[in-house]
Amino acid sequence: MVNKTFTVIEEVGIHTRPASILVQAASQYKAEVNIEYNGRSVNLKSIVGVMSLGVPYGAQIHIAAAGADEDMAIQGIEEALKSEGLGEPCEVI
């Protein structure tokens, strides 16, 4: 399993458009991919699940992938977050 933490930088949080972008990015991979926020974890390939989290601006989210292409999944999702201005990786201290 591979995981990474990100800070949401989209002003309105993870609403419909950002959720759709993340679901599309995650759906390209065979790995099981989950997003966790505020103690709840949902399948990142489910738009309804992602929207149900209600992730606001400034929140820290954790993305976890498990499966054959887990490394590529995390990298692809990170690229989508950065290129769309949705989130940035948290620095590990």
From TrEMBL:
The keyword Oxidoreductase does not apply. GO terms for cellular component: cytoplasm. One of its GO terms (biological process) is phosphoenolpyruvate-dependent sugar phosphotransferase system. It comes from the Bacteria. PANTHER family: PHOSPHOCARRIER PROTEIN HPR, PHOSPHOCARRIER PROTEIN NPR. General (non sugar-specific) component of the phosphoenolpyruvate-dependent sugar phosphotransferase system (sugar PTS). This major carbohydrate active-transport system catalyzes the phosphorylation of incoming sugar substrates concomitantly with their translocation across the cell membrane. The phosphoryl group from phosphoenolpyruvate (PEP) is transferred to the phosphoryl carrier protein HPr by enzyme I. Phospho-HPr then transfers it to the PTS EIIA domain. This is Phosphocarrier protein HPr. It comes from Paenibacillus apis.
